[in-house]
Amino acid sequence: MGAVSGTPPSGLSEETRRQAETARKALTALRGEIAKTVVGQDSVVTGLVIALLCRGHVLLEGVPGTAKTLLIKTLSRALDLDFKRVQFTPDLMPGDVTGSLIYDTRTAEFEFREGPVFTNLLLADEINRTPPKTQASLLEAMEERQVSVEGAARALPDPFVVCATQNPIEYEGTYPLPEAQLDRFLVKLTVPVPTRDEEISMIQRHAAGFDPRDLSEVQAVAGADELAAGRAAVRAIHLDPKVAAYVVDLCRATRQSPSLQLGVSPRGATALLATSRAWAWLSGRDYVTPDDVKALARPTLRHRVQLRPEAELEGATADGVLEGILAHVPAPR
Length: 333
Description:
By secondary structure, the chain is of the alpha/beta class. Helices cover about 45% and strands about 15% of the residues. A hairpin with a 4-residue loop joins strand 3 and strand 4.
């Protein structure tokens, strides 16, 4: 594969390399800890870890009852990160998410009371059930990692990741996310219904007394330090110019697809680069291959494209269109 698969020196010190290897082992161990409460969903867990490594946000889509909330709660415990959950409803106000100024009668002054957005992992449950005004309250937090109230900017903790959920089959009483907000999610992960064997295992756990509210068995196997070390290592992952061109060609092909009325933006191309580098590092390599790009193309791009109405009527899906593009755009060798 020539230069595409070469392993150039990363420029990292020996100590940094050691820290990165320790971080990779710790983050790999997350699957085992999360499996104590959530059956299956390994690919979703991997997507969440990639988002954390890229400082990106996640849109989780799945029918109710597929353990989306339990998955995020378990992840926060296994990473020893602060966690808050907000149930998005039609009457939720922006200040209920970001916080607001409260008049203190003792001091006769206004003081800022932080909202639930001031956390490491924010679960925005059923984000499409709240009006656009409240949805928009997350835009600054997601992009700038800060909240502005009365002209004063307040930084959010690091790491800060929004994990938003939405129901793919229920549209009554919902407010679809605008493209500008969808584009701010690094990945969109579909949470599938468990397989028959997985569902049998889940039922047996509950029959044996499993309580999803009791996470005492879950141990913290990594934390903010491991995530920081992992991020540093991901930034040092080598990207061959041919692979960079492949990322661009894939994204440009979505803009020319007859099935799509909206293709992937340049922000989407940089997102695909970031997720591919994170996956390469988690796989134990310090260079990106075309297969890394292919593996992350669907979760990184599926929410950044929009089908034409006639294509949708014919049964086309975003994943199907992306599959066709991956099959037709030549990968470098």
